[in-house]
Amino acid sequence: MDYRRLVEDLFECMHRSRRPPFPEEPEGITRGELGILMFLTHRRDGVSAGELSRWLRITTGRVASALKSLERKRFIERRRDATDRRRVLVHVTEAGRSFALDRHEKAKRGMERLLRRLGERDAQEFVRILKRIHEMEPEEDGNRQLDGGG
Fold it and tell me: Residue 38's closest CA among 79, 50, 29?
């Protein structure tokens, strides 16, 4: 199989697509900011900026910028760690949690519409392939730190 040609076909298809399959982010919030909110809401509230950078695979500079913006929006707050006063931890506020949960629900509804349009067999195959990709070990090519975009 000519995998290079398959990649070119995939990229061409993605390029011609009029809109992404997922809803656009609302004005005023970036994907990086939303990623941080989702992480704090669904995974673990009360983490350091360094932990966010490692878990989300975005640069510390991008995390710092996103945290400033989220703080201005009152979606997060930074507090000293009760057990180690030298550490500052990031916590999601109730407004941030509510926003993240609302966006998560909208994304789920959008994905459900997309999967319904694919039909049962193709939708199951699509999810099976995504799970397989997720289970595969990443290749060690030095590109582990990703820029979060946004």
Answer: 29
Q: How many CB atoms lie within 10 A of CB 144?
A: 9
Q: Please, what is the angle between helix 49-56 and helix 31-42, to 10°?
A: 100
pLDDT at 45: 83
At a CB cut-off of 8 Å and minimum separation 6, what does 49 contact? 60, 63, 64, 67, 88, 90
The reply to whether 66 falls in a domain is yes
pLDDT digits (tens, 9 = 90+) for 19-52: 655 555 566 788 889 999 999 998 888 999 999 9
Please answer whether residues 109 and 88 qualify as being in contact, where contact means their C-beta atoms are separated by less than 8 angstroms.
no
Contact residues for 144 (Cβ-Cβ < 8 A; gap 6+): 57, 138
Q: What is the pTM of this model?
A: 0.72
d(CA 84, CA 2) in angstroms, rounded, equals 55
Per the structure, the count of domains in the chain is 1
| pLDDT tens figures, 107-129 | 899 899 989 999 999 999 999 99
Residue 93: give the domain boundaries.
Answer: 3-135
